Amino acid sequence: MASKLHPVQERIAKAHGSQCGFCTPGIVMSMYALLRNNPQPSMHDVQEAFQGNLCRCTGYRPILEGYRSFTKDGGCCGGKAQSNGCCMTNEHTQEHDSSTLPAQKLYDQSEFMPLDPTQEIIFPPELMSLSKQPQRELRFAGERVLWIQPCSLEELLELKATYPNAKLVVGNTEVGIEMKFKNLFYPVILAPAYIPELNIIQNTQDGIQVGASVTLTVLGDVLRAAVKKLPAHQTEVFKAVLEQLRWFAGQQIRNVAAVGGNIMTASPISDLNPVFMAASCKLTVMSKGEKHVIEMDGKFFPGYRKTILKPEEILLSIEIPYTRKGQYFSAFKQSPRKEDDIAIVTCGMNVFFKEQSNIVQSIRISYGGMAPVTVLATATCNRLLNRQWNEELLEEACTSLAEEMSLSPSAPGGMVTYRRTLTISLFYKFFLNVQHKLSLDLLKEGVTVEDVRPEYATATELFQLDSPSSVQLYQAVPPGYSDDVVGQPIMHLSALKQATGEAIYCDDIPCYENELHLALVTSTKAHALIKSIDTSDAMAVPGVVAFISAKDIPGSNMTGPVVYDETVFADDKVTCVGHIVGAIVADTQAHAQRAAKAVKISYEELQPVIVTIQDAIANKSFFQPVRSIERGDVAQGFKDSDHILHGEMHIGGQEQFYLETNCTLAVPRGEDGEMELFVSTQSASKTQALVAKALGVSANRVVCRVKRMGGGFGGKESRSTILSTVVAVAAHTVKRPVRCMLDRDEDMLVTGGRHPFFGHYKVGYMNNGRVMALEVTLYSNAGNSLDLSLSILERALFHMDNSYNIPNIRATGYVCKTNLPSNSAFRGFGGPQGMMIAESWMSDVALSCGLPAEEVRRMNMYKEGDFTPFSQRLDNFTIDRCWEECMQLSDFNKRKDAVEQYNRQHRWTKRGLSIIPTKFGISFTAVFLNQAGALVLVYSDGSVLLTHGGTEMGQGLHTKMVQVASKTLGIPCSKIHITETSTNTVPNTSPTAASASSDLNGMAIYNACQTLLQRLQPYKDKNPKGCWEDWVKAAYFDRVHLSANGFYKTPDLGYDFETNSGRPFNYFSYGVAVSEVEIDCLTGSHKNLHTSIVMDVGKSLNPALDIGQVEGGFMQGLGLFTLEELRYSPDGYLYTRGPGMYKIPAFGDIPIELKVSLLRDAPNEKAIFSSKAVGEPPLFLAASVFYAIKDAITAARAESNLTGPFRLDSPATPERIRNACEDKFTKLVCSNFHC
């Protein structure tokens, strides 16, 4: 590893901000770039710098907290317990905890190396000197593309005349995407980034003229300077552009993307074009021998992705105008996620009033996202001329916009009702904004007009991202036990390597000399027969070696993790879009991917195409068996109930979005059918078995090796094998090493994700909220094969009660067979879906009774010694303790009073509060998987090599296992090393899944270490004053075996669905979370204001890792329940492929205040060193955010006199939130749209 770390690398590692580590170098470089430009940034600067970065593991908190130490105010949090290791943490802890033990720090900030900007490496002088040399034309000719960088405007115009269809590229933020994802091809690309005339910035009489190649970052700097310098009334448009730039992509994109590119791309959802159009910006256009100025009006975009410029013309510059007194301008953008997201609807609004009046002289409103082009609401604007800016004008405008901004029900992008509502809601925000500013401005001139009502004021406020604060509490190792590494917050053992970029992932393995690359050929139809495959064009691509298909498989084409109901390659029939039909093997990845696109497959389409759960129900398309659990007398329970309600809920799927996509390198060893595989997988043994099956050899000829994964989350438990088998077959066929790392869009297309669920329930309850009877039916969307879906449904049924004791209960579960890529394991494994349905009916009961939801939940909660519906007794039940501590930690009652007061005082923003418990069963429900092996090797120098059956995917399993071995053997962690997980050291390993890996592998390691200790005991007895090395050396010279196998199987497990008897789980993990949110009733956006979590993890093996798992799991759940949405066409085509369309939580989505406490004094005798599983259980606690949103919506609906239960499906996206907040604007759209 690097001999010296930079402080930026050190702090993210030591602050526990690196788990899987795949995103860490990118985050390090974003922070490094910020500090090079601004050595003393504010916390806001740090948050802005990370707008283009994503992390799927950590939950972001430790990253921000570690880097807070670089900020101006990073030294002390001002008494708000914001910084880890805050000087006031101890005092804060004792306020909420009966324990007298002080809270400990997860790391010591005083140990950080100081940042010394004078010690940074200088910018290379050779590159500096290049900027002083005269510009000259550059040309690069590839196999198919000519790239030219002209050095003068004349040269550019000459080239554009010669190549009129050439694309102009500055940042390549759009053309690169078009070429990759839309299969567009541009043989000539012109790069005018350094032409002086295209980089001008000058003040004119009417505004600021900006060259078309000026980057968005520079544009922002220029406009910010103008806003500071000029009178406020002149800079209304500038401020609107700046507001749009705040949320335009990320800093990295803004640094290279050009303003001209944004205009000429002509995107119908452009963030800036509606602003430019509403402002009547002037564009200077040039061609060879001609130059003219045009106004950006309703005619500028004649069609989708088209402008009125001729092919030989270029955009030279744009003039952004000043505004005048009496002129007001606003811009709005609504997107699923606030940070770095594409717009759903975006708009610019511009009004000018007659002197000293509120009478409209001119008005211009422009929308993006409402047509194939950016449009002006001309008819509405005409109707508002010469009208007073009052409620009558508002009513007229809203009615007119509802008519003018219409969309077809089948409009691309969907969300038709929401988009139409947004056009009115955003105008209403503009109306209030203008009304407020106008009243203040006219008052100065002695004219009085009505101001905005105080309760409406928040609708005019711009979204502000507050600086997050956090507290972490855990039970420290008692004084005098500091040598005990178990229980210490030890840093992830690979964190420093991950921070420097030296950690090796699968695709980092150096290429073999004769290695080839593979690209998949996948189906474009969801249900069809394959008529023919034409590979002639593909084989003509340079570098192509072979096309691999079913006929090349030497063994069996049938595969699958449980039952063999899948194929390695589709043979005669495809059953989903993304079904692997074949693969191209070529000398480079680019050649392989190009050839794969050239393969032509003809199909005969089949019916039906089943995509949704509703489709499956209608076609009775189910896998067998149907599962059910029943307890008590359900019919009698309903008879005894005061009330009965019915309800439904749909929970959307979720993409695992591990940062490292699936990757396999297969190396044929050339004899006896041997094959070595380097794979990013959670299931080394299953990969070994299925590859051996496809190759027609026994498992002992295949070795699977896993160093580490860049995230897994269940997505690499079974679905990674579909790529590994293909790559192995290809390597066997060509007899050369073959590598494939999927691109993100390919990975999302072929691997499936979390199962969508649909639940229907009938609940019988008493007047006081006590639930007497429940009947629930669950349906899961499995996709085109069974995979692990039956086990996932079973776990959903086991968690259908969440934490509530229902005396009479009946649940039935169906696994739906559909024409989607097979869905699979994802953190929680069906548990979150089952519990989410439970919280839905619990919420409905509370709303129906008119009682506080927290009281109804508490009343129905299990108690110590109660039995679950599957007849398992709850021992050491700690939810009641978690609940009380969480109520205290969050100051729930005080917070609730504040929420109610806020809601009384605000009409268009509402706050909500919710407390949610979780009870999660720990064990594989397939009993045979609850086993683990370990191999411990002690070398004669005293060093220890540790191998076990678990894989490292960021969760810190290897770190914990080293801690277990260290404690057991009584030696420092530094003497113990884990190289990798491999099938030739520990056989028949279970997948690293079900949160059980620390329990299983930890016990196996413990058993192996105990064997070694027994062998070393005679030498300890002979030399009691000796050290570890002395005893090992003595044993070695005495010919003692210094390696040991360990094995463990969880005792007393097994459940029978037929008799509803047995014990499916070894124990349960418990937790409770309180969350507070604020929703914007007009747009559906929400802010996560506060979350407190209390989690029972037993006696933590490593509090830093466990808190990281709690926070990371919570943020993944936040994505599942509020943000992440997979969208399919009716033909089964996945629209949301890649981060452009599919949004996981970003840095700005974490709760502004986040408190995490690990429950004290709760040892668990059923796992290694009294610990508990922690990977999956915390994820469901994010449901507290969902139900806080539902609470806020309830308050909004009350303003329209709507009370009682209402359906809110998951995720609670802005669209669903806005549509649920029914008001006069939604009614206007519905009456016009016939909802």
UniProtKB/TrEMBL annotation:
- Binding annotation for FAD: L168, V169, V170, G171, N172, T173, E174, V175, F248, D271, L315, K333
Where does the record place the catalytic residues?
E1176
Q: Which family does it belong to?
A: Belongs to the xanthine dehydrogenase family.
Q: Give the catalysed reaction(s), semicolon-separated.
A: xanthine + NAD(+) + H2O = urate + NADH + H(+); hypoxanthine + NAD(+) + H2O = xanthine + NADH + H(+)
Among SMART domains, the record links this protein to: Ald_Xan_dh_C (SM01008), CO_deh_flav_C (SM01092)
Its name, as the record gives it, is xanthine dehydrogenase
GO molecular-function term, one example from the UniProt record: molybdopterin cofactor binding
Q: Where does Mo-molybdopterin bind?
A: Q682, F713, R827, A994
Entry keyword set:
2Fe-2S, FAD, Flavoprotein, Iron, Iron-sulfur, Metal-binding, Molybdenum, NAD, Oxidoreductase, Peroxisome
Q: Where in the cell is it found?
A: Peroxisome
The record's section on Pfam families has: Ald_Xan_dh_C (PF01315), CO_deh_flav_C (PF03450), FAD_binding_5 (PF00941), Fer2_2 (PF01799), MoCoBD_1 (PF02738), MoCoBD_2 (PF20256)
Which Gene3D superfamilies does its entry note? 3.30.465.10, [2Fe-2S]-binding domain, Aldehyde oxidase/xanthine dehydrogenase, a/b hammerhead, Aldehyde oxidase/xanthine dehydrogenase, molybdopterin binding domain, CO dehydrogenase flavoprotein, C-terminal domain, Uridine Diphospho-n-acetylenolpyruvylglucosamine Reductase, domain 2
What EC number(s) does its UniProt record assign? 1.17.1.4
Q: Give the transmembrane ranges.
A: none
InterPro entries attached to this UniProt entry: 2Fe-2S-bd, 2Fe-2S-bd_dom_sf, Ald_Oxase/Xan_DH_a/b, Ald_Oxase/Xan_DH_a/b_sf, Ald_Oxase/xanthine_DH-like, AldOxase/xan_DH_MoCoBD1, AldOxase/xan_DH_MoCoBD2, AldOxase/xan_DH_Mopterin-bd_sf
> Where is the FAD-binding PCMH-type domain positioned along the sequence?
140-325
Binding, [2Fe-2S] cluster: C20, C23, C55, C57
The cross-references to SUPFAM superfamilies, in alphabetical order and at most eight, read:
CO dehydrogenase flavoprotein C-terminal domain-like, CO dehydrogenase ISP C-domain like, CO dehydrogenase molybdoprotein N-domain-like, FAD-binding/transporter-associated domain-like, Molybdenum cofactor-binding domain
Annotated residues for binding of substrate: E717, R795, F829, T925
Q: Cellular component GO terms, alphabetically? A: peroxisome
Instruction: Give the main location.
Output: other
- Cofactor(s) needed by this chain: [2Fe-2S] cluster; Mo-molybdopterin; FAD
- Self-association and partners: Homodimer.
**Cofactor binding note from Swiss-Prot or TrEMBL:** Binds 1 Mo-molybdopterin (Mo-MPT) cofactor per subunit. Binds 2 [2Fe-2S] clusters.
Q: Give the superkingdom in one word.
A: Eukaryota
Q: Which organism is it from?
A: Cyprinus carpio (Common carp)
